[in-house]
Design a protein that fits this description.
Layout (H helix, E strand, L loop, with lengths): L22 H4 L9 H21 L3 H7 L3 H28 L7 H18 L18 H21 L2 H11 L4 H17 L30 H4 L10 E4 L2 H4 L14 E4 L45 H40 L6 H10 L1
Antiparallel strand pairs: 1-2
Helix pairs in contact: 2-4, 2-5, 4-5
Length: about 375
């Protein structure tokens, strides 16, 4: 008989069992000195103890978040449940196959009864709220009869609502058809739909189907495919390319530079077409056939290592810190220069413009306002 995979079956340490053990069960028990009922009770006690400890820690999921000691409790719980399940399977096999004398089956049956009384509680997970009476029971004959009547009622409603043509399509879907024959039939229907002209007018005896309202799934034909009538997507590349402005192409610009906000519209480069594509050797600087492109850098120019690839962490942090400090200094300097420029403008106005103003006229204008 197959058993659950787990650690080697064992019995936890129990007190001295004083019950009499028949000779026919001594070699069949996990521990010959302990009777079957005491073996089951010890497993039940171990599982309940682990459940209590997990409940004290807030439940199974909360205990896992705490971490410390959770794996030990989980292992003890798992080992005890696997060993208990394997023992129950062995006891049930003894009762079914009658491997022991009938007079010695009383202890085995008592152990199975103990397990039957405790299995619901042992199957609960600590931390999960259980509602009494919420467990589903086996359906009775009355439940089966009610379900059958409901199915008959549903079939009657469908027969009344669906048209003849729809009933034929639904009945065909219920018949088991060979896979190859079904695929051939579907392919032929697709070819017939593709060969029909697009300007075909629907027959007058059938109401036009609304475009925005899909047909109910029970009234669709089995051969209808959404991909058969869906329009194909077309992708077209425009002849002109929009080049972003400098304000969008530069990050953290210097405050002393003025960036343009104008976008540029240019035709695509010649290398973007298949007729004027560049061969692979033309991209390599070390080859004599190298041809500089539009965006090619100058020879021996050093690229900015913005990704800090293969750069130690301390050097990367220092470089970023220096760049941030330099940026802050530039912003502060630009702010002070604006103040100086403003001061010079005010001073120039006082020296060159203010003396030519008539003070009396200024006072009269201010009084009018």
């Amino acid at each position: 008989m197959s058993h659950l995979q787990g650690p080697q079956q064992h019995v936890a340490e129990v007190g001295q069992c004083t019950h009499a053990i028949p000779d026919s069960l001594v070699l069949k028990l996990p521990k010959p000195q302990v009777c079957p009922n005491c073996i089951i009770r010890e497993y039940v006690r171990t599982i309940k103890d682990v459940q209590r400890q997990l409940a004290d820690r807030g439940g199974t999921f909360k205990s896992r978040e705490i971490g410390k000691g959770h794996k030990k409790l989980r292992k003890a719980w798992r080992d005890a449940k696997i060993a208990l399940t394997n023992t129950i399977l062995d006891f049930e096999e003894m009762v079914t196959k009658k491997e022991v004398p009938p007079e010695d089956l009383g202890g085995i049956q008592n152990a199975l009864d103990t397990w039957g009384n405790e299995k619901v509680v042992l199957g609960r997970m600590p931390g999960v709220v259980y509602v009494e009476g919420a467990a589903e029971e086996e359906p009775t004959e009355e439940d089966h009869e009610v379900a059958r009547l409901m199915m008959e009622l549903l079939k009657a409603v469908l027969k009344r609502e669906l048209s003849k043509e729809d009933l034929v399509a639904v009945s065909k879907a219920d018949v088991a058809v060979d896979a190859q024959q079904a695929s051939q039939t579907r392919q032929q229907s697709f070819q017939q739909q593709a060969s029909l002209p697009k300007s075909v007018v629907p027959p007058p005896n059938r109401a036009p189907q609304s475009e925005g309202r899909p047909k109910p799934i029970l009234k669709r034909h089995a051969s209808t495919s959404p991909t058969a009538s869906s329009p194909q997507k077309r992708v077209r590349i425009t002849d002109l390319a929009v080049v972003s402005s400098e304000t969008l192409s530069n990050s953290n610009p210097s405050p002393f530079t003025r960036l343009s906000k104008k976008t540029t519209v240019l035709p695509h480069g010649d290398h973007t077409s298949a007729e004027h594509h560049r061969r692979r050797p033309e991209f390599n600087r070390s080859t004599p056939t190298y041809t500089p492109g539009v965006w090619a850098s100058k020879a021996f120019s050093e690229k900015a290592n913005t990704s800090f690839f293969k750069t130690p962490v301390n050097i990367m942090e220092r470089s970023v810190r220096e760049e941030i400090e330099e940026e802050e200094m530039e912003k502060d300097l630009a702010k002070r220069l604006k103040m100086v420029v403003g001061g010079w403008v005010v001073l120039w106005w006082i020296r060159n413009v203010a003396p030519h103003w008539d003070v009396e006229k200024l006072r009269e204008a201010s009084m009018r306002v």
